[in-house]
């Protein structure tokens, strides 16, 4: 799908050309999982897959949402506010529109056509992509002058308050700020960030979708968020800290006795060690040492599996296979987990072999196939140029 295909789709539904076409990517997180909501450092990059939006104002005082991924049109009258309606895809754009209205912005009726090539609900931030896309487009259409950083923060607020998931800032930040061939090192406490070179040389970044349905993922995610809150409360009895990631491994060892629940102890071990691994991963990337970076990816997966318990047999099967494959130097689950995707660094010229061997291994163990594809990093949200009508 490209801008011109979006124009054709929009024109056949709304009988005129769209005024604008926007694109927002998805993301993978290279390392630093489940620590954004603990004030940690994360390392995502935007990818070339994402969501498109063709949009025009209308004079009908109606918001028309159409998605090619969930072929349906939803029409709502312009109102002062909206609330969540069931578990449908359009709650994400609707939540963002609601937030823009709550902040005093004025909008008109809109015809919107969404289309994404990201697997949905697979841990590649399809929801952050559509959220950021909507606010970025309306910001441009109505001259709202909202900064990109504030659009990311608004996305987080919508996830937390409108959708009801206590997620951190990583996904929205990554899809706003992404840059081709760069990873973003983001401090989720201060929102300071730097771009790191992500040049993979003779390797490519492969995404493996386990195709496991992430049922109950939102409630399990909220459970982890709550558990971290309990760990922090216990440690705060002796430590003057704001976030779990303010604590280093040695300080944690000294105060570990304050946590009397073995499950909470494991959660803390993951969060604090993962934050440390991100620091090491940064050094590895800066030194162009992909082999060390890969080892950290495996270590991160192990921690998410054993201590944070957000992996599962499908993602573990993928990573297990990767460990036995000589030309794969690192792999891990990416995103929230409980299904979804893993990422792996695989030698470019071995991709076809990796693809077929992993597919049969996985199918034999799990009973269905994964989707395996080479991925490219990409830029953050943007307006796409379209060819003028002649
Ligand atoms: C989801 C959330 C993010 C982050 C990851 C786990 O993608 O939206 O904020 O917590 O899970 O790292």
Q: Which SSEs are present, and which pair or pack?
A:
Blueprint: H1 3-14, E1 20-29, E2 41-42, E3 44-58, E4 62-67, E5 72-77, H2 91-102, E6 109-116, H3 126-141, H4 148-163, H5 170-177, E7 182-187, E8 193-197, E9 203-209, H6 217-235, H7 249-255, H8 262-286, H9 290-306, H10 313-324, E10 328-333, E11 341-347, H11 351-366, E12 371-375, E13 382-384
Parallel strand pairs: 4-6
Antiparallel strand pairs: 1-3, 1-13, 2-7, 3-6, 4-5, 7-8, 9-11, 9-12, 10-11
Question: Short summary of the structure?
Answer:
The protein has 390 residues and is an alpha+beta fold. The protein has helices spanning 3-14, 91-102, 126-141, 148-163, 170-177, 217-235, 249-255, 262-286, 290-306, 313-324, 351-366, and strands at 20-29, 41-42, 44-58, 62-67, 72-77, 109-116, 182-187, 193-197, 203-209, 328-333, 341-347, 371-375, 382-384.
